[in-house]
Amino acid sequence: MEQKALELIEHTLDEVLPRLSSRPAVLAEAMRYAVGSGGKRIRPLICLGAAVAAGGRMEDAAYPAAAIELLHNYTLVHDDLPSMDNDVERRGRPTVWKKFGEANAILAGDALEALAFGVAARSPRNSGRIVSALARAGVGVVAGQVEDIEKTGDVDFIYTHKTADLFVAAAEMGALAAGGDEVSVSALSSFALNLGLAFQYQDDLLDGDSPYDRSKTETLAKNATDAAIAALSGLSGDTKPLKVLATRLLGRKI
Amino acid sequence: MEQKALELIEHTLDEVLPRLSSRPAVLAEAMRYAVGSGGKRIRPLICLGAAVAAGGRMEDAAYPAAAIELLHNYTLVHDDLPSMDNDVERRGRPTVWKKFGEANAILAGDALEALAFGVAARSPRNSGRIVSALARAGVGVVAGQVEDIEKTGDVDFIYTHKTADLFVAAAEMGALAAGGDEVSVSALSSFALNLGLAFQYQDDLLDGDSPYDRSKTETLAKNATDAAIAALSGLSGDTKPLKVLATRLLGRKI
To answer: φ and ψ at B89, to 5 degrees?
Structure first.
């Protein structure tokens, strides 16, 4: 289903982002540039996969899936700023602040964040709980980033919040959008927390900057992936898309 | 009712903001510092006044009122940044970036924005529509700010979005939280749009930087205030608190 899912994600993002003809044009342009196209879209794929795993259709979760990607991309825009990571390139292109200026990058990020919540609220089912899940992740991801900048060295806290919180919100929103029961929401939340941690350990291995030695990090990544997949047992819907995604992420080379 | 309303606003803000004992402490501290206490709280007063004018109780709109103040304060934190207005003082104290550093100010603003939506979603009635109204304002206020920075000189666009959008969302959210009908929501939206414009004209007079001459700006402020008050006729609830607020804002000296 992944190709169809990616098409749904790109289509929905294009639908909800401001037209380039809207005012001010530079804001619409910067917002669309930030979200890009053809990215990996891991978080929205988790959201759609969770909807299917909870017994619904992936179309049920189209808006929450777009919302989590908008939120994720705003965090990247702000992380790249000169006063944060001071990055000039991302995905082989100039970062938003490098291309549009620092003020416009801050503002485009701010607008993407607001838009994310507006899009999440458009879910036909459980919109209140979906927005709450997204807001928890929105505060959590900032807490993780502040902790990272402060260099407290609490890896668990940073990984859980900076990375896994958005994975968790994606899964919970997908399950809620599909009308999943509490047991499904909780199981998918657990799947996503473990997948988020696995993703971060794997990222450390690829970047060669793990706080642990290589063999320990590999074990942590493997165990977290196993725990993620185990959490899927007992769900009423089709869990194959999420299993494929989890397995692919563990083996990813970029 | 204004004293009681202000107490409800401060109480709700204190309830929803992260405790100083939460992690990371610097984030909670910066968020609370940004929101401050004892401010004028104009937007939440509009929200509570709209709930009463729509026939409900002001307690119905406590969460939306807190949400609009959180959103407003995040915009101030980001507007003050060095790459934006580069302000070092606000309300007689160092600005957030001056006190906590630029990265923490960006992040505290980001977290306040996410929190605003989470708090709005807690409204017992119409939470989906309330979040949508807040998100429209959240994108609109950024559009107004970008247009202002770009110096296009379109005063109507800038005032409508940079200032009035938050007033409009405050009123709509209050009416929706009180279970007001479509006619009430629309009337209160019109009230707030006009009040927002009046507020901005009045601001220009106080700052001495109006794009028009003094006499024209005074007429614009007076007419917008009259239009705001006229929009309140026909509402089923008590419109006195909003009338008092509108009259007081036109006469404000700070």
So the answer is: -140, 140
What are the structure tokens assigned to B56, written together?
Answer: 């409900």
Give the distance from CA B249 to its chain's centroid.
Answer: 13
Q: What is the CATH number of the domain that holds B61?
A: 1.10.600.10
pTM, rounded to two decimals: 0.96
Interface of B with A in 174-193 (CB under 8 A): none
Range of the domain at B171: 2-250
A142 at B interface, C-beta within 8 A: yes
Positive/negative CA dihedral, B185, B191, B197, B203: negative
Residues B77, B193: contact at Cβ < 8 Å?
no
Q: How many residues does chain A have?
A: 254
Amino acid at B45: L
> How large is the ipTM?
0.96
Say yes or no for a CB contact (<8 Å) between B131 and A120: yes
Whole-angstrom distance, CA of residue A199 vs CA of residue A159 = 10
Specify the number of domains making up chain B: 1
Which among B75, B107, B166 is the top mutation candidate for probing chain A, defined by the most A β-carbons within 10 Å of its own β-carbon? B107
Tell me which residue in B106, B128, B132 faces A106 most closely, judged by beta carbons: B106
Contacts of A110 in chain B (CB under 8 A): 74-75, 78, 109-110, 113, 138, 142
Per DSSP, the three-state class of A80 is coil
**Distances A167 to A44, A123, A214, B78, B236 between C-alpha atoms, Å:** 9, 18, 24, 27, 46
The CA dihedral of B7, A118, A39, A192, to the nearest 10 degrees, is: 60
**pLDDT tens sequence across A133-154:** 999 999 999 999 999 998 877 8
Cα distance between residue B135 and residue A94, in whole Å: 28
- Give contacts of B145 with chain A, Cβ < 8 Å: 107
- Whether cis (ω within 30° of 0) applies to the bond prior to B18 is no
Q: Measured between alpha carbons, how far is A226 from A19 in angstroms, rounded to an integer? A: 42
**Partners of residue A153 in chain B, C-beta under 8 Å:** none
Please say if the pLDDT value at position B253 is more than 60: no
